[in-house]
Design a protein that fits this description.
Blueprint lengths: L5 E4 L9 H16 L7 H11 L1 H8 L4 H15 L10 H10 L3 E5 L4 H10 L7 E3 L13 H10 L6 E5 L2 H10 L2 E5 L7 H10 L2 E3 L2 H9 L5
Parallel strand pairs: 1-2, 1-4, 2-3, 4-5, 5-6
Helix pairs in contact: 1-4, 2-3, 5-10
Length: 223
C-alpha cells in the first residue's frame, strides 16, 4: 500500500528532462525576435523559473505583452512538437506502483495538457488520473493552491494523504498554501547550488534520486 493516497508530480524536469532540450532553447528563440540583443544563459533561465515561475519570468522580468506571450506560446509549440523529452529513470515505475498500490497520480504543471499526455504516450507511461496544466485563468495555475484543493474536494482526501513533488519554488509555494507535504526532486538536471540550499532548508523531503521517492511512498512507516 502507498503511504500517500495522492502523488502530485510536476512534469518538466521532475518527470521528464525538458528544460535544457526544449524550454530553454525555445525561449532563446523567442527573445531573438521580441528582445533582439538580450541574452540569457541556461543557469539564469533556471534561476528565474525557480524563483518566479515561467509566467512571472515572462511578465515581470521581460515585461512581455499579451501579444508577445502569444508569440512565445507559438514558438514553444513549434519547438516542442519536434522534441520529446525522456522520463527520468525510475519515474515511470513509481507512477505504475502508485496506481497498483491503490493510489492516484496527478500532474500539476506549467506545460499544456496535450503535451504532457504526448510525453506519457511516447514512453508508454500510464496516464495521470488528472492534469492541471497551463491555463489562461492564472488563479488556477501553481503556485495557486487551487489544483491541490480541487483534488482534495473531488476525491475526499485529507491533506495528509497528498505529497507534491516538484523541482521549482512555485510547486513548494503551492504545497505550502494548500497545507500538504512537499518533496524536492533533487535528481533534476537543473540542480543549482542556491536552489539545493533553499530546498534543503524548506522542503519536507529532499530526494536525491527517484529511488528515494519510491522508498518514501512504498516502505512501511516511512513518513
Amino acid at each position: 500500500m502507498t503511504n500517500f493516497k495522492c502523488l502530485v508530480l510536476d512534469h518538466d524536469d521532475t518527470s521528464v528532462k525538458s528544460t535544457p532540450e526544449i524550454h530553454y532553447p525555445s525561449f532563446v528563440n523567442t527573445l531573438k525576435v521580441i528582445r533582439p540583443g538580450v541574452k540569457i544563459d541556461l543557469d539564469e533561465f533556471i534561476q528565474y523559473n525557480f524563483s518566479n515561475g515561467f509566467f512571472d519570468t515572462c511578465k515581470v522580468i521581460y515585461h512581455m505583452t499579451d501579444e508577445e506571450m502569444e508569440f512565445e506560446k507559438t514558438t514553444w509549440n513549434d519547438f516542442v512538437l519536434h522534441h520529446v523529452p525522456e522520463f527520468y529513470d525510475g519515474v515511470p515505475e513509481i507512477i505504475k506502483k502508485q496506481k497498483s498500490e491503490g493510489g492516484i497520480e496527478c500532474v500539476v504543471s506549467h506545460s499544456f495538457d496535450n503535451i504532457i499526455l504526448r510525453d506519457y504516450d511516447a514512453w508508454n507511461v500510464l496516464h495521470p488520473d488528472v492534469i492541471y496544466g497551463w491555463n489562461s485563468d492564472q488563479s488556477k495555475v501553481k503556485p495557486s493552491p487551487f489544483p491541490i484543493l480541487d483534488i482534495i474536494e473531488k476525491n475526499g482526501f485529507k491533506k495528509e494523504d497528498i505529497i507534491v513533488v516538484d523541482d521549482l519554488k512555485p510547486g513548494l509555494d503551492m504545497a505550502r498554501a494548500a497545507g500538504v507535504k512537499f518533496g524536492y526532486s533533487g535528481w533534476s538536471s537543473l540542480r543549482l547550488p542556491e536552489i539545493e540550499k533553499y530546498m534543503r532548508d524548506n522542503a519536507d523531503y529532499f530526494f536525491e534520486t527517484p529511488d528515494d521517492l519510491y522508498n518514501l511512498l512504498f516502505t512501511n512507516n516511512n513518513r
